[in-house]
Description:
This protein is mainly β. The chain has one helix spanning 2-23, and strands at residues 43-54, 63-78, 86-101, 106-118, 125-138, 152-165, 170-182, 193-205. It has an eight-stranded antiparallel beta barrel. It starts with a helix and ends with a strand. Residues 20-28 and 31-35 have low confidence and may be disordered.
Amino acid sequence: MNFRRFLVPISILLGVTASLAQAGNEAVSARLRGNGELNAPTLEVSTESAYLWGSLANPNSYEVAAQFITARVRWGVIDRDTWLRGYNQVYLLAMVEPLLRGPENLYFGISAGLRYNFVRPGSRLVPYVSGGVGLGWIDSHADVFGAQGQDFTFNILSAIGVSYEVNDHFKLSVGVLYQHLSNAALTDPNPSLNLFGPQAGITYSF
């Protein structure tokens, strides 16, 4: 039932995807027109949704619907004819995560990190890997076994996926996300939480 509620924003995202893809047929990105200099975007803003499940190590069977708003700034370009051709980005994101299953109800926080995009000449598909660390707050329940021991937590995010360049400004992405929540042993015991799941998003490039 909880997963069905998450399908509503995914359906909206797919509808927007179809519209942007149709609009992008005539506008091919400058990064796709040949073997010239790689023209990486200076700034990007994206919104991404994810549905995450807790690992078997935690007895509470967590399910989380996560929403991320991210700003990415270009930081270095590799424009050589190797598999590493692409560009790096520094990102800052804000996250809001209603807990659909588990002792707590809501997690929110921030994270900063790096993302690398692998760009091949003439291809609209751009694989990426990313990782970062941050901090946040959760309505903890220290009296529940396996629940978080205090409100303040640290987080680790890592992802792998692929973006599809619709046109010069819009990209669509799908990937797999890993998230770790922990208070770094500020409480004892420290019941950390490991979450895995798919994510999808839309990015606007400036």
